[in-house]
Design a protein that fits this description.
This protein is α/β, with parallel strands linked by helices. It has 8 helices and 7 strands; from the N terminus they run E-H-E-H-E-H-E-H-E-H-E-H-E-H-H. The chain has helices at residues 15-26, 38-50, 65-79, 102-130, 151-171, 204-216, 226-237, 240-249, and strands at residues 6-10, 30-35, 55-59, 84-87, 133-138, 176-183, 221-224. It has a 7-stranded parallel beta sheet with strand order 3-2-1-4-5-6-7, sandwiched between helices. Helix 4 links the parallel strand 4 and strand 5. The relative contact order is 0.13.
Length: 256
């Protein structure tokens, strides 16, 4: 499996991002980690450096334009080239429409959608100048429908997936690979908050290995596990008279 030499991971403080940092370090990549959780990425970096790996870090809130600009400039300064950028930062909190707040929706969009948009704005010129590069954006298999208790998450991630698809089509001519990573349910601090059943829940280390393999093969789309992929394809084409009652049955009784 071919591993990119210089790797930037945005959103590396926990979950999939942390697991990816550990896997890429073990594979010999030079790393820069960005996250708004400074203490967490400092600890991860300290551990990886103590093991003989090369890892730098900087605090960065992906929802803030200037933070992303400074973070990517920092990464380029440390790595000299950015061969692979993984945009992993994301947020998702359970929210039932009966208590819907637009502020929560804005927060989801600012991180899940605009975070990727901010990153693309600064990564594309760098990779055009290099003459190559790979950008992997992590969205979700839940981007196909408006699932209960996940309206802001599904909406913001759907926009992110479409944005990445447009980027993939356009940037191929510039030797820039754009990969959309659509995981199913992965056990993280974010999914621990979910108030609904999560089939085929996967551990982060397994998810990270699957993502790495997909990126190394330069797949345009990395999605897993396969059974959840099949379920979401069915959900996408299901008529509303089937989709709606099935989704209502899946809600927790105390939220009906």
């Amino acid at each position: 499996m071919k591993i990119d030499k210089n790797v930037l991971i945005i959103g590396a403080s926990q979950g999939i991002g942390k697991a990816l940092a550990e896997e890429y370090a073990l594979a010999g990549a030079n790393l820069v980690l960005l996250s708004r959780n400074l203490s967490a990425i400092e600890e991860i970096s300290k551990t990886l450096n103590s093991q003989g790996h090369q890892c730098d870090f900087m605090q960065c809130d992906i929802s803030i334009y200037e933070d992303v600009k400074k973070g990517i400039e920092f990464a380029l300064n440390k790595l000299a080239t950015i061969d692979l950028a993984i945009i992993n930062a994301g947020v998702g909190n359970p929210e039932w429409m009966i208590n819907f707040k637009s502020e929560g929706f804005k927060n989801s969009v600012s991180i899940n959608t605009f975070g990727i948009a901010h990153s693309l704005e600064f990564l594309i010129p760098i990779m055009r100048k290099q003459g190559y590069g790979t950008i992997a954006g992590i969205t979700t298999l839940s981007d196909v429908r408006g699932y209960p208790c996940s309206s802001s998450y599904c909406s913001s991630k759907a926009a992110a997936s479409v944005l990445l698809e447009s980027a993939r089509v356009e940037l191929k001519d510039y030797n820039i690979n754009v990969i959309t990573v659509r995981p199913g349910f992965v056990k993280t601090a974010m999914t621990d908050k979910n108030e609904f059943y999560m089939p085929f829940l996967m551990q982060t280390d397994k998810a990270a290995k699957i993502i790495m393999r997909g990126i190394s093969k330069r797949k345009s789309l990395v999605q897993f596990p396969w059974f959840t992929v099949m379920l979401t394809r069915l959900a996408k084409i299901a008529p509303n008279f089937i989709f709606d009652p099935v989704m209502r049955m899946g809600r927790k009784a105390d939220n009906k």
